Amino acid sequence: MATRMIPLLPGTRRSLTGERVPDPRRSSEHRPGTRSAVGPAHPRDLGATGSARPLDLSATRLEVPVGLHTGLGCDAVGVPARFGFKILSRLPAKGCVYADSDWWWWLVPAGSDQDVTWPLPACYARGAEIPDRRPRLIHHPDGTSPYTPPIPLYLLVCQLTGIAPSWAGPPVSSAR
Questions:
Q1: Helix/strand/coil for 43
Q2: Helices (DSSP H) in 14-137: which residue ranges?
Q3: CA-to-CA distance for 84 and 81, rounded, in angstroms?
């Protein structure tokens, strides 16, 4: 029996568990040490019958509540909703958390993906620009920082997904 492969629409990818994961749109600004921006697929690539359909690239930038300081810039880390409560309850410090029916998003300082690979099905969104599914703020931090510390968040995401944490470290040399 042959297996039939169902093509994914541009802007989605499949996680190790087989569920579809949104690819966030890349910020147009290029920061040193980060990957370059990825452009959208051409609309003609969407139609299986050859008909051109417009590509839905609607995205939204997560709005930081008034009174919170964003001096470090803002990126976001998203996880499927099934992990949301587990992560929220286990984090020692929590910043702004947004949710829609399918995804939960945590604000982290810009560049929290540098030398770190966030495991699937987590989704890292530079500039806190995420697919527009009308997320709402579900957790407001107690202090004036909107950020969730990225290292504890990363370790929890790794633990819940069963992926060993991995990040690049500085080269080690022996002293002579």
A1: helix
A2: 81-90
A3: 5
- The pLDDT-based confidence of 46 (bands split at 50, 70, 90) is very low
C-alpha closest to that of 107 among 57, 144, 145, 58: 145
Nearest to 79 by CA among 15, 167, 166, 11: 15
Q: What is the 3-state secondary structure (H, E, C) of 108-150?
A: ECCCCCCCECCCCCCEEEHHHEEECCCCEEEECCCCCCCCCCH
Residue 20 has pLDDT above 80, yes or no: no
**Pairing outcome for strands 103-108 and 97-99:** antiparallel
Instruction: Give the CB-side neighbour count of residue 168, counting CA atoms within 13 A.
Output: 9
Mean pLDDT over 86-92 rounds to 93
**35 Cβ neighbours under 8 A, 6+ residues apart:** 26
Tell me if 81 sits within 8 A of 122, measured CB to CB.
no
Q: How far apart are CA 7 and CA 15, in angstroms?
A: 14
Tokens, residue 67? 């009174």
